Amino acid sequence: MTNPTTKEPLEQIVVVEKEPEAKKQKTTMTTETKIKEVTTTPESPDEEWPEAWYMLKDGDYDDQKAENRMSPENKPCSVGELKKLGIAYWKMDAETYNYPVKAIPWDPKDAADPKLMAIRDDRGYSYADIISVKPDLLPGYDEKIKAFFEEHIHDAEEIRYIIDGSGYFDIRDTHNNWIRIHIKKGDLMTLPEGCYHRFTCDTTDFIQAMRLFIGAPVWTPFNRPQEQHPSRMEYVTNYIDNVTTA
Ligand SMILES: CSCCC(=O)/C(O)=C/O
Ligand SMILES: [Fe+2]
Ligand code: NI
């Protein structure tokens, strides 16, 4: 089909249904039958996101597993601010579907949860494992907790689906202040490549998480400082330099 005036191929937005219950997908079609899918699973509404707050400065608290909120007044961090820093979030159903306590690896193709399947397919998650961070389930628990709490970046997106338990991911705001995000069962959160962060269990000392990857898993943490690392430079360009703050 062509535009009658310009004679150029006409692009049409059509809605294709893959399976009866599958979500509708927008597909761009031209007369050359070139099909480009532009699907996304919408992120959860703000009210479903995990609670986040500005935390005390390092050195002003004793226990990394405590809430360590500002005092005398808590300073919450809004979902808008988390989004500006590149965080993405989906509320998942962690009650209905069962996962092993530990699976290294765990094949994302085995997902039975349709929302997890959709996110996996939209974002190309092809590898996963499942770990339980708990003193009696993870050999070397104390050393691992210490290592997770070293501030670092990765050269890939960090994707964590919390199947059970809870913990804290800390990230930096644009002024280098720590923001503490309390993730718990049912939370699927992603941190962009190059985003400084650290993780700790909370006082419950238990979290079970699925760690997802696009392609081969990359575990290497690059501890701060990493200002010249290409992933960090890209993050700074996308989320720090180009962001206007109040
Ligand atoms: C909640 S999963 C354990 C922590 C982890 O995998 C990580 O990469 C922290 O940065
Ligand atoms: Fe990490
Ligand atoms: Ni500011």
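^ nickel (II) ion complex. The chain has two domains: 1-39, 46-236. Helices lie at 79-84, 114-123, 141-148, 230-241.
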